[in-house]
Description:
Structural class: alpha+beta
Largest sheet: 4 strands, mixed
Amino acid sequence: xxxxxxxxxxxxxxxxxxxxxxxxxxxxxxxxxxxxxxxxxxxxxxxxxxxxxxxxxxxxxxxxxxxxxxxxxxxxxxxxxxxxxxxxxxxxxxxxxxxxxxxxxxxxxxxxxxxxxxxxxxxxxxxxxxxxxxxxxxxxxxxxxxxxxxxxxxxxxxxxxxxxxxxxxxxxxxxxxx
Length: 178
């Protein structure tokens, strides 16, 4: 990892605000976008290690949305002028604490409308054979879990609702089958 690791987007970071068709209609600071329920863009990256296990983590209690919830994706918001692909790589490297990750593979997009607000969500997958050092400000606990164990935990742990919806869409599409 280099000393120039990208910094997480703060509540003051400006986001593109989008309509129901994912067209940019304005900009707003991240904190305002969440507070006012303004639709924006997010990325979700399913990271697997060389054994096919999925990176699962519990968010810190300091997160702006869904604090202390579990997630099977790394990811976050897309900054103003940033592409989904750029945000997916930035967020994956940032949250996993790695540098030099291959570009995540885009899988699909969907409009999330539920707990926490509404955002266009681009879902990706990436293989991470690098030694991870998750960012302490973002990740309170983590492990690479076999998919079967992750499935067992779905009813036991409190998951971020948008990530859970993305995972359920992946499962329905058979994207997780080897």
